[in-house]
């Protein structure tokens, strides 16, 4: 169980992100208030174009909000200089995307311990760590395979191991199962949950698949620029949302998926 009494790992306060598009203003996220605690497993759901990726980019400071404050461990993170933000991302955040971006001519092991990641670490130590991570994601027998010799699900597991190489506190995954069938995708979600349990890394995963979202204990829906909790009375949003939203019965995610397809 996550401790929700202390300082949140991440706190969004009135976060908005607007884009200028052909002279028109597009308010993608509006006044979001949300807290994520260390050790949480969060699924961000919502139809295509809802703003899920935009939200994840903000959480990883790859993009900055137009308004509002984001605190990481109590620190106003966007008050940092760009080099300070780069250091933050490098030290604290691991990213996994829909496309794994593995280097095709490198083995799984080499992809996890890329030169840019190992820095001044001794090679033997880096290799030990990479092996340990590959074992954790279930690829002990595949460490010397190249990406082309691995299945889609296995490739994504390598990408997850790589994202964790620097022991980030936050792992952000943007539709990591977007190219996978449901069963393989469920395996990826299981790996994310196991890593959360064994390493304590806070996991935030975007998915538009309600069946996969259901495997995560905390679920929020991005809907018309707002965050709607899918668990009534969730302490992460308590006192921070209009009452009617906080206590609104969560919609059945399966119906949401149908509505999104019909829209
Ligand atoms: P999702 O990940 O939920 O599918 P996104 O966060 O990628 O949605 O995008 C949400 C909306 O924001 C979309 O309408 C998209 O066109 C718009 N958007 C995203 N990035 C930009 C940008 N850099 N400039 C203009 N509009 C953008
Ligand atoms: Mg997206």
Automatic annotation (TrEMBL):
Keywords on record: ATP-binding, Lipoprotein, Nucleotide-binding, Transport
MF terms in GO: ATP binding; ATP hydrolysis activity; transmembrane transporter activity
InterPro entries: AAA+_ATPase, ABC_transporter-like_ATP-bd, ABC_transporter-like_CS, ABC_transpr_LolD-like, MacB-like_ATP-bd, P-loop_NTPase
Keyword ATP-binding recorded: yes
Domain ABC transporter: 10-258
Domain of life where this protein originates: Bacteria
Pfam families cross-referenced by the UniProt entry: ABC_tran
Family membership: Belongs to the ABC transporter superfamily.
Name of this chain's protein: Lipoprotein-releasing system ATP-binding protein LolD
Organism: Lujinxingia litoralis
């Amino acid at each position: 169980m996550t401790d929700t009494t202390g300082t949140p790992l991440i706190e969004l306060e009135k976060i908005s992100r607007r884009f200028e598009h052909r002279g028109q203003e597009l308010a993608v996220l509006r006044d979001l208030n949300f807290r994520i605690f260390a050790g949480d497993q969060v699924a961000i759901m919502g139809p295509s174009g809802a703003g899920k990726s935009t939200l994840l980019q903000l959480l990883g400071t790859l993009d900055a909000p137009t308004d509002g404050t984001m605190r990481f461990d109590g620190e106003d993170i966007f008050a940092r200089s760009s080099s300070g933000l780069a250091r933050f991302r490098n030290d604290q955040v691991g990213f996994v995307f829909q496309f794994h971006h593995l280097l095709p001519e490198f083995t799984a092991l080499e992809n996890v311990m890329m030169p840019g990641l190992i820095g001044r670490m001794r090679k033997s130590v880096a290799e030990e760590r990479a092996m340990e991570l590959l074992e954790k994601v279930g690829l002990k027998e595949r460490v010397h395979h190249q990406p082309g010799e691995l299945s889609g699900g296995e490739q994504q597991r390598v990408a997850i191991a790589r994202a964790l190489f620097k022991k980030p506190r936050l792992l952000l995954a943007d539709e990591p199962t977007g190219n996978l069938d449901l069963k393989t995708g469920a395996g990826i979600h299981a790996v994310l949950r196991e890593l959360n349990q064994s390493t304590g890394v806070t996991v935030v995963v975007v998915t538009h698949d309600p069946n996969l979202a259901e495997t995560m204990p905390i679920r929020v829906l991005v809907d018309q620029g707002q965050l709607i909790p899918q668990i009534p009375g969730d302490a992460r949003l308590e006192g921070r949302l209009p009452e009617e939203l906080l206590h609104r019965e969560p919609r059945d995610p399966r119906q949401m998926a149908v509505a999104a397809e019909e829209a």
